[in-house]
Amino acid sequence: TCKLISGEMSEPGKEVEVEVKRMDGTVSPQPVELLRDDLLLSDDDSSAFDFDWSSWDDMTESLFSVQKDALPGDMASKMQAQMRAQLKAAQRLMAVRADELRRRIITGNKDKRVRDFLREVPTVRLIDKISFTMGVLLLLLTEYVMLAQPQWIAPWYFLCMTPLLISRYYFYTRSNLVFYMIDFCYFTNSLVALALLTDGHVLLNRAAFVLSNGPIAIAIPVWRNSLVFHSWDKITSVYIHAFPGIVMFVKRWNSTGNDFFGCEAEGCELSLLQWLGVPLGLYCVWNIFYIFAVESPSIKFQVHQETSLRYLTTHDNLAFVQFIKNIFVKLGILKKGEKLNPETWRTKSLYYTCLVIYTTSTILPTFLMFKYQWAHILILSICFVFAVWNGSTFYIEVFSKNYLNTVERRANNSKK
What we know:
single chain, mainly alpha, 16 helices
């Protein structure tokens, strides 16, 4: 027979001893090495402890080789197999004890699985601290570049937006949200980047101004963007919608901005073509691309992939969406409480119509924003205040409750 002798289990590579009792009554301790080095990283995996069974076969073979001839039939081999089974039982016992120890070290509770513990949202995680720090620094440095080094606003835009968009693509790909990245805000950011890189035609630059300060900037209060510093995703959303307008503000009102927009004198204005014609034409180009994209088999038949069309037509948590639905109910287009199906062309027609109305209406104030600095400052400030307000709402009403619940849960676990 054999039994496990107590050994130190906390370090991978440690040797434990299994006591082997022979038939003649003699006892021989046999060392067994914990071969794998991921003791605290494995999750409920009893194979974390593996015996070198070849050495055990040699040992058990030597134990019974002397008495093999004296034992009748295949009794020796049966006893050897029984011993091997008992050693496997000892292995499982060690695995259970190690699992309990690992759970107690990592989670504070031997009955809570590490897998479940890792799925819980910690109060403050390292990535949250990094995101908070980066969010604050980005805001301060952007303010510094705007006020003290406006000639560096274009390089600073690329320096900030490149890692933000790369990380957004990475996380959205893993979360089935990657098709959000064909939305109009990303198209406008591409337009701004093209204008900055090529120092393009005045018509392109002014169209970038209109779209950045109209539909994209005003999307901050409409879609409830929140300045939540510890959330990298929310910070990215704010910068995607706010940064193009900031860049255009610096280019318009900086002393060198007149060259960028072709303004040679005071009172520079947008023509009707520059104000409505070209921006709406670019919007129509994007909208046609978007329709073909979401109707392609790669998206249409992947129901697990989220798109703006699917989200906005099936969720009523946004005040703007609820407002539009109420208008449709009053006009008799929708019935009260009617659920929209994003796969029907009726729903898609309503969705695209709303987008055209939204884009056109948010373009209108840009005429004043381009002509008067005070109007530009006022509208961008209102959008930024909404982002700060939404962020404060998140911290006070959502984050604080989660924090208190986490503290109470951990206090209760410690009492157990």
